Amino acid sequence: MQLMAPWVPAFTNSVNRHLESFPFVTLSFATVDCEGRPKVRTCIYRGFLFNDRRTNVLTITSDTRMDKIEHLKSNSQVEACFWFPKTNEQFRVSGHAHTLTSDNAEKFSDEVDYPLVSPGAIKNYSSNMDLASMGQMTNNTSERNDIKPTAQEWKDEMDSKWDALSGKLKASFRKPEPGSKITPEKRKLLDSITRGVDGSNEEDGKKNYSLVVLTVDKVDYINLNGHNDIRYLYERFDEDQWTEDEVCP
After folding, report:
1. What is the third-level CATH fold of 6-125+144-165+207-247?
2. Pyridoxamine 5'-phosphate oxidase Alr4036 family FMN-binding domain: from which residue to which, for each copy (predicted)?
3. DSSP letter string, 128-187
């Protein structure tokens, strides 16, 4: 239960090396709209869920009024692609994405079908072996529910990711609805927000803020180092187990 996947160390190393030269990590995030058409956009990677690599869950932030949030309501299947130019590595990550807001934090653990453990419970266990033993001991539903992340822990995670955002990005959540037709009034508001004279504070946009959590099921990793290119495919099974196969690049 909640054991670090075999692709995580390589991914973490790629992220860390990238951040030595760039201020943040971007990814292409693809969803499927209500008509079955793929939609992709660039997002900023916000780290592992609960800042714990053992979750194997990646996060991004989003305005709840964005199209991708509507897409996820009807189809949670997604794919994200990370490209690291410094090391010539690519990670294609497939799975499901779930939108965490202040409105659904109370029931979010029930919405996410993934082997996640409460950060508070993890503190009581000293190793992955302890966590595995805990998972084996919890054979009934009520016991499993007791070690899932709590509503307060989901809220704390939202706050932590929000606090890490820049003031400029926080201000973007106060802008008019994304994709809506521009009007003189909206143009004036956009200008006021840009100059910081719209009469609001950073917290006023938080009502439109959400944390999108990507629960990973498959990873396609390729390293094109120019000398000995390698490619590995990873796939999750039995909740917290992973296959690892080397394939031709």
Report:
1. Pnp Oxidase; Chain A (2.30.110)
2. 4-99
3. HHHHHHHHHH--SHHHHHHTSPPHHHHHHHHHHHHHTS-HHHHHHTTSSPTTPPP-HHHH
Q: Provide the residue ranges of all domains of the chain, joining segments of one domain with +.
A: 6-125+144-165+207-247
Amino acid identity of 199?
A: G
- Tell me the torsion sign for CA atoms 71, 108, 243, 24: positive
Give 68's Cβ-side CA count (13 Å radius): 25
Question: How many whole angstroms separate alpha carbon 242 and alpha carbon 229?
Answer: 22
Query: Which pTM was predicted?
Result: 0.92
**How many Å apart are CA 100 and CA 186, to the nearest integer?**
28
Write the single-letter amino acid at 84.
F
**Length of the chain, in residues:** 249
